[in-house]
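Input structure tokens:
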């Protein structure tokens, strides 16, 4: 952002991705994190039409993923949860402050995850991918996960290994690559992919 700001004379020749949630209350959440302030907000999840009210919410960290900002935090003794900022209707900083827990780190919280889907009941597994040469170039330049390693390279394919939780958002990402990627293992993930592909096939 600073680089773009310093080059205003060519701003009409630079196009960034639109992030709607950045226009809503991102600045308030940044202030809350900087000043360790509790927050109250109204939340409208995608799965219901009922507005949920939160107060004394302790914000711990922010993450940008797929053009959406997410906040991680909790109220009271609840477990940390993730909320999409663009689903918030009203955000207000409270006068109350909180003490930041030691070793609070966004990277640690999302370790083992592809995006923002955090589920400890899904175990971290070694995912083995067989990739076409062209797609391998993309994965080398922009890894799917920090654990990604290329273990074999030939003229017709490459093999990549990742230690990651096969969460729904990761599976969705794999599906987006079509026939450029084949999951070799674990077998459970291959089965899940096959079932989804068959359901897609029936639609079309």
């Amino acid at each position: 952002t600073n680089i773009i700001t310093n080059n205003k004379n060519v701003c009409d020749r630079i196009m960034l991705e639109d992030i709607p949630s950045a226009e809503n209350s991102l600045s308030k959440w940044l202030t809350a994190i900087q000043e360790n302030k509790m927050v109250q907000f109204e939340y409208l999840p995608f799965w219901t039409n009922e507005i949920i009210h939160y107060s004394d919410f302790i914000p711990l960290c922010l993450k940008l993923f797929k053009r959406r900002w997410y906040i991680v935090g909790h109220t009271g003794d609840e477990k940390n949860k993730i909320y999409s900022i663009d689903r918030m209707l009203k955000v207000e900083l409270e006068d109350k402050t909180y003490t930041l827990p030691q070793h609070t780190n966004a990277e640690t919280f999302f370790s083992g995850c592809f995006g923002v889907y955090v589920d400890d009941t899904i175990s971290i597994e070694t995912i083995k991918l067989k990739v076409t040469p062209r797609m391998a170039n993309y994965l080398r330049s922009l890894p799917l996960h920090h654990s990604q390693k290329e273990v074999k390279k030939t003229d017709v394919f490459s093999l990549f290994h990742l230690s990651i939780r096969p969460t729904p958002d990761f599976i969705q990402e794999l599906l987006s690559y079509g026939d450029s990627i084949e999951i070799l293992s674990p077998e459970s993930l291959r089965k899940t992919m096959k079932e989804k592909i068959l359901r897609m096939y029936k639609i079309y």
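The beta strands are 37-43, 52-65, 68-75, 81-84, 88-97, 125-131, 149-153, 158-164, 181-185. The radius of gyration is 20 Å.
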